Amino acid sequence: LKDLADYLPASLATIVSYFSAEVTRGVWKPVFMNGTDWPSPAANLSNVEEQIKKILAATGV
């Protein structure tokens, strides 16, 4: 678990940064599947980012 905590922050930061940039640029448009709109990740992105920060702070990274 400690090894994972060593490498995870850099990976997560890159992933979160990428998705933030994509959402901000408006690259993700509404997608239709069986007549149902998929929700945009923009609404949940800040919540997920806060949870990741809390987890990383709790692990002491």
From TrEMBL:
A GO term from the CC aspect: mediator complex
Chain ranges passing through the membrane: none
InterPro entries cross-referenced by the UniProt entry: MED33A/B (IPR039638)
Positions in coiled-coil regions: none
Any one GO BP annotation for this protein: regulation of phenylpropanoid metabolic process
PANTHER family (UniProt xref): MEDIATOR OF RNA POLYMERASE II TRANSCRIPTION SUBUNIT 33A (PTHR33739:SF5), OS07G0681500 PROTEIN (PTHR33739)
Name of the protein in its database record: At3g23590-like protein
Organism expressing this protein natively: Solanum quitoense var. quitoense
